[in-house]
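Q: I'm teaching a short session on how sequence maps to structure, and I want students to see two examples side by side rather than one. Could you give me a first protein with its sequence written out and its structure tokens following it? Keep the formatting plain so it prints cleanly on a handout.
A: Of course. Example one:
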Amino acid sequence: MTYRRHRPARNWGARLHETTWFGMRAVVLENELLRVTVLADKGGDVAEFCYKRRDMDFVWLSPDGVRNPRDVAGGASDDVAAFLDHYEGGWQEVLPNGGMPSIHQGVAFAQHGEVAGLPWDVDIVADYPNEVAVRLTVRARRMPLRVVKTFRLVSGSAELSIDEELTNEADVAVDVMWGHHIVFGTPFLRPGHRIRLPDGVEAGEDLTVVPDHGAPSDIHYLTGFGPEGWYEITDPESALGLRVAWDATVLEHLWLWRELGSIGEYPWWGRAYVVGLEPFAGYPTEGLAEAVRNGSALTLRPRETRPLWLRASVMDDDDKENA
């Protein structure tokens, strides 16, 4: 992390500070409405997305909390536990393998491998009362991939913007799955929450209402987004919700994962009531080799750089009334 120990102190408007969570470097971006904590030493995870007016964190924090990947579990590990043993909930970058362990182009990938478990470099690129931004950078270890990701908050806005570049640093083409593993749970998510999608999205069944506790776990792969993908997930009683938008020319699919407390064994033990709404290039959750086989993986040409943008915006009718 690039520390700037002598930057002017500020506790108003947009601001940021470096901190440590459980021995890991983290950076906090904050304005009058949002506080966003990013774990630089663990995948660049968004571990906190707190809307201050309601003291509401939109991303799920698992019952096990944040765990440092350097703290290895005492039991036997495997390519699934490599991700789950340190999964705190939140919002992960998934690249180049989505879902289960997979082997492709001579590489063996663990679940959601590999950048979600790596430390990222951090540079402060804007630090002003009207705007703060930090740039995270990582290189994968098993594939010739480099990711540059910039988080940005503007004063007075309840929107987090993310702009990325994914580069294939090799002279040969590579196939990848690329996604954002965004999961909603406590304290925000409850039965009856509404999910709104663009007209024309192919879902296969009605997925617009979050089921009750104990409903079967499942996963769906949604297609048919236009150039701009988006969804909204809202509490119909309070009208509080989050709208996520992204470049659907890059992430063409949306994974909708529902774990509603029905799994009473590892890894959830009946403690997870969550819905994941995850923009993705590639499906299904069986991993990269299957995504390549079905033609849904993203292919990067030699030395190609692919840009991507995402926006996460709080929706709050009370905020509008008080504006």
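Q: Perfect. Now a second example for contrast.
A: Example two:
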Amino acid sequence: MHGPASPGWLLVALCAATGAYCLLRMRSNVEEQRRAAGGEALMGFGMAAMAVPATVFTPPPWTWPLYAAVFGAAALRALWAARTSRGGRGGRGGLHHLHHLVGTAAMAYMAVVMAASPAHQHTHHGAGVPPLTAVLLLYFTGYVLLSGARLVPSAVAGGTGVVRWGDRPELARACRLSMGIGMVAMLLTL
């Protein structure tokens, strides 16, 4: 992605750590956690790879179409899951699949934009923000604000019994919030 190196590396670290935690969640005994964790790990590691500052490493030209294909396939999978979801967790399971669909489609969109842009050209020359980028920025900004607001009550709620690290819902929400923040940062540098 285009942008300064220091924030880029922070974004890489945040997204890679989120992807790593999602891999831990794939070992959960809770089926719902395992199902969601795989797609979220792909998003975390994909975002980390795409966020490497261009001043440090410029990927070969074939990388961006590959990202677009991988995230396009993930978007189709999320679309299928949203279509067939029974809406577990009080009807929000289908919404999670729709959110994952928007996220994977946004990653595919960013890969297509990066494939179409010359290596170091990142100014729009007065053209402003493209409409799709603006819509995605609004969506993910709203998602981050809403997720942050939902995270606060769950942190103080407490529970009984010992919960494994991969099964902690507040950590899963924090990871999703981190990826939402990362998506806003990546869209801003697009």
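Q: What should students look for in example two?
A: Point them to this: Residues 5-189 form one domain. Also worth mentioning: The first helix runs from residue 5 to 25.
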